[in-house]
Amino acid sequence: MASGSPSRRRDFRLLLFGQTTAQLGTQVSGVAVPLLAVVTLGASPLQLGLVTAAGTVAFALIGLPAGAWIDRWPRRPVLVAADLARAALLATIPLAALLGRLTITQLVVVSLLAGVARVFFDVGYQSYLPAVADRTGLLAGNSAMETVRACGQVAGPGVGGWAVALLGAANVVLVQAVTFALSAASLLAIRAREPAPPAARPGRLAAEIGEGLAFVARNRLLRATAITSAAGNLAFAIASAVNVVFMVRTLGLTPAAIGLVLAAGSVAALAGAALTPRLARRAGSARIIWLSLAVTGPAAMLTPLSGPGRPVLLLVLGTAAGELGQIVYAITNVSLRQRLCPERMLGRVNATMRVLMMGLFPVGALLGGALGQAAGTRPVLWLAAAVIALSPLPVHAALRGVRDVEDLPAWTRP
């Protein structure tokens, strides 16, 4: 079997299936939950910002110890437990709606607890992938994973928008609960054995966390990618607090139309994921990391320029370009980190990077909600677009003159 073809492996295909299913459900409910808050519960921009922030604040609160724990534990059981927890939590939303007891407070609490489970899953998933796709096949493995997951992203928003129109937003959230359960089942079917985690010494948690932080802090390349990724996530969080409000109340879009707009972005993500290996060969596996953002970032300016009627096409174009650039950046950046990081520290380094990237997300969501409440949605989208356009500068500075990963200087390697 070719090491560069992880999709030939049964265990990798199971992981792929589980994540495709979960991603479809995530995209369906990603339309349903904001619409549930805005249309059904009448949420203000600030309240929607609270719901969004609650889903990511766990990265700042427990992200670093989660990485150290994941380096101590077998990773597959952590992934299974995270999927099952999210399935159970999300199932409470349609139940509360059925009983007429659903509130913004419940959406915030469910988002918060599901965010805790997401922390363990996201850190564990990036650390578990090398067990089912060897390190020489990581770029192909990440590309295949994102390509198939993007298929769910293509179908999910459109299905979600129509399903909300037909069934109601609360009922659609049940779809995501079911898909998380299916993801857990696919993980349980994997046969590959992970390397045994090193024995943990009592009282060493703080030192292990510090080791992961120090590894990232000393590495100029990891520092740069953390800053770029944090800036992109901050901009996305700021925009996410007002996006649905902007589309519903300013552009006058229906739930089905919103689903189609998001689906257009997902089509671009699908194309970007499939093309990433080819783009990396053409532009260079290191250069493409910053180039993908530098080329597509300015298109974010199209979103605040959009309006009702034909100008809504600017929103579609801006969304599609942004998704294309972000998916290429994400695949190449994560593949680089997985390839260069020592196995024994992969959980802690991934956790450190996720905390640095996601720690600003709740801040951005609350900032975007507050600014949207005070100044309106369009100025908030202009602010987010400016941050996105500037975000590739740190990575460009760190990788200036480097074409391929193999050309990186010795200090970047473990």
UniProtKB/TrEMBL annotation:
GO terms for molecular function: transmembrane transporter activity. Signal peptide: none annotated. It is found in: Cell membrane. One of its GO terms (cellular component) is plasma membrane. CDD domains: MFS_MefA_like (cd06173). Keywords: Cell membrane, Membrane, Transmembrane, Transmembrane helix, Transport. InterPro entries: MFS_dom (IPR020846), MFS_trans_sf (IPR036259), TM_effector (IPR010290). Residues 221-414 form the Major facilitator superfamily (MFS) profile domain. It is a multi-pass membrane protein. PROSITE patterns: MFS. SUPFAM superfamilies: MFS general substrate transporter (SSF103473). It holds the Pfam family MFS_3. The keyword Transport applies. The chain crosses the membrane at residues 46-67, 88-121, 162-190, 226-248, 254-276, 288-306, 312-334, 355-374, 380-399. This is MFS transporter. The lineage of its organism: Bacteria, Bacillati, Actinomycetota, Actinomycetes, Streptosporangiales.
